[in-house]
Amino acid sequence: MAKSVNKVILLGNVGKDPEFKALPSGQPVVNFSIATSERYKDQQGNQQERTEWHNLVAYGKLAEIVRDYVKKGSKLYVEGRLTTRSWDDKDTNKKVYRTEIVILDLSLLSGRGEDGGSSGGYSGNRGGSSEQRGDQRGPAGDEYAQSTQITDDDIPF
Could you tell me the domains of the chain? Predict the structure, then answer.
């Protein structure tokens, strides 16, 4: 079988406070979305910005970390895998699809005085334990994080 890769890397801002709950098995799960922005010039040469919203889900220890340290406006660096769930809508009996990113690694980029918790990295793919590491992206990653600021006016809900 040929090798395949399913990896997503995002750097953006949380749109609203994460929704934390437990699965019937008792495993913690959290759902939330982050916004990423792209700047480009249109045909007239005017600077434009396009915002894309991404649905994220975290399980286990990562879900608890998100619950405790992430809130609306927090800056995050996320690594994960893309997945699509489907179910039958109870009202319309039609199949509904939701594409989301399952978080495998997470770095909190907001400082204590800003919109999130302390800076640090946490990973769910290392035996289920949380692991803190320093920011290895360097100053360019921080500059990009600063340029992705969103305001309440940018949030569509």
Answer: 8-37+48-154 (2.40.50.140)
